[in-house]
Each structure stands twice: as C-alpha cells, then as structure tokens.
Amino acid sequence: MLCEEKLEVFENGFEDGKFKLRVEYYGKDARRLLLAIIRELYLPDYGPDYVYPFECAKEFWGIYLDPSEIVAEEPNFSPVKFTNRSVLNRLEKALEGINAPEEIKERIDLDKAEIVKLKKGLLALGKDFLLDERGYLVIFNKPSARELVLKYLGMLDGD
C-alpha cells in the first residue's frame, strides 16, 4: 500500500524511496517497531500532530498505536565477551525457528555479527540485520538503519 508518495508499506515491512530505506521483519511481529521508525522518519515533514505515513501504516497493519506509546531508548546491552559455540548455537536455533525465506536466512552471517546480551536474551547485530534470540529477525538495506532499529527495540512485543 502506498502511504506517501515514496513510502510503500507491505505485510512485513516498508520501503521508502525518499530515504532509500527498506526494512522487513520475519518471525515474531515487529510492526510496532516499524511504525516507530516510520513516524521518526516523517515527523520533520509533518510535525507531531498528525504524521500521515504513520497513520496510514497503522491502518494498513490494523494496529492501534498512540504516538505517546512510542518510546525511544538507549539500547541497554552488554557485549558478549567470548563468542563460543554455545552462544552461536542459541542464535542459530533462533534463526531456524523463524519463518523466513531461505535466501534471507542464508544472508545472516552470525560469525561476523556483533553479539550482545540483553535482559531477555542474545542479540546479533550485523551490518544489514538484527537477530533477537526471542524470535525476531529484522533486515534492512542501509547500515545506518541499525541505529533506528536499536533505538526502538523496546517496541517489540509491546515491551
């Protein structure tokens, strides 16, 4: 669905021609996180009262989310000091449990990812993906998008 001249929203993500950004998720529902990102991207253009692309994406996805519920936070994680086979096995198991196309899963290189520990499990951070051990895989086309995803990580599962 076209929600703005250059913003297309689809079932598991969005693509924005203005910012040349594509973000998709697989596994557990990460649409609240995507809504937060869309709102931040378009807030300067629309102002805080009514961000049309955000409202359009909410309607398309059938999600009620008040802007006051969007909380940006500094990611609270600690680096995993030693990436051993056990840590990689946990993340590989999480990846296997996510229903994503094989070509997407094959792109995930856990050996090159930065692995950090959250309160609720492990998180693998790649240059174009984020894999949360709880069952979330977020793929993006620009390394700079990683900071936006991390900023709204608390939006997953309504946490």
TrEMBL record:
SUPFAM superfamilies: PH1570-like (SSF159902). InterPro entries: PH1570-like_domain, PH1570-like_sf. Residues 1-153 form the PH1570-like domain. Pfam families: Ph1570 (PF09638). It comes from the Archaea. This is PH1570-like domain-containing protein. It comes from Thermococcus eurythermalis.
